[in-house]
Amino acid sequence: MVIGEVVGRLWASRQAGSLSGQKLLLVRPLGAAARGAKLIVACDALDAGPGDRVIVARGSRVRDVTVGAAVADKDVVVGIVDGASQPLGGKGAA
What we know:
Blueprint: E1 2-10, E2 23-29, E3 40-44, E4 53-58, H1 60-66, E5 75-80
Parallel strand pairs: 3-5
Antiparallel strand pairs: 1-2, 1-4, 2-3, 4-5
């Protein structure tokens, strides 16, 4: 899993049919995962938005039990972070 900050939304006029109706977010990894990391495109069913810190789980098993096996993305927002006992990095570090 990766903790990251939502930096925006992503949409496409042409996309795989399985992504139709899926909200896609651009997530910047925070903390140790941020070193040399690229933005993550993750499906979101929790209504996260820009500036939110989120937990992104990766892999087909996570996708299958959260947004469905037919979805063409294996990165899924599984939590919105309210706080942490250690600094996470990013603008709203806590």
